[in-house]
Design a protein that fits this description.
Elements (H helix, E strand, L loop, with lengths): L1 H5 L7 E6 L6 E7 L4 H10 L10 E11 L4 E11 L7 H17 L5 E5 L7 H9 L6
Parallel strand pairs: 4-5
Antiparallel strand pairs: 1-2, 1-3, 3-4
């Protein structure tokens, strides 16, 4: 599935991963083709554990942007780790934090890493600035 996104097949824009209920593997939780970052962001934020607490997630997001000065359209594949430090159980935080590198290393072609510890760290403007090195047009 990651290769499909990376190669631009099937219109995939993002993949959200989670750790399986038995805590033995990282699995695909959801995929999407919506081009709207806020739709993706809301999906990350609404993930809940059985206890009702926020569930951490890993995600791959294809950031598309135009460079200023007419230099053209660019895309960067971003690996996002979202762990809401204030609303996630300690066991979940530890499990996701310790499993992050395993997934990241299995996905070849990631151009950017992003760690978000609260909803405010998932803002589009920040991701865009990082992906484009501040050279994207709004």
């Amino acid at each position: 599935m990651f290769n499909e996104l990376k190669l631009g097949r099937n219109g995939l824009k993002y993949i959200i991963y989670k750790i399986s209920d038995d805590l033995k593997e990282i699995i695909v939780d959801e995929t999407g083709t919506e081009d709207d970052y806020n739709t993706f962001r809301e999906k990350l934020l609404e993930k809940k554990e059985k206890t009702g607490k926020s569930r951490p997630s890993y995600a791959i997001y294809d950031i598309g942007f135009e460079l200023e000065g007419g230099e053209g359209k660019r895309n960067k594949i971003c690996f996002i780790t979202y762990i809401d430090q204030d609303n996630t159980g300690v066991k979940s935080r530890m499990t996701y934090a310790s499993s992050r590198e395993t997934l990241k290393n299995a996905l070849n072609g990631i151009a950017m890493n992003w760690q978000a510890n609260d909803p405010g760290e998932l803002e589009w403007a920040d991701l865009l600035k990082e992906a484009s090195k501040g050279r994207a047009t709004a």
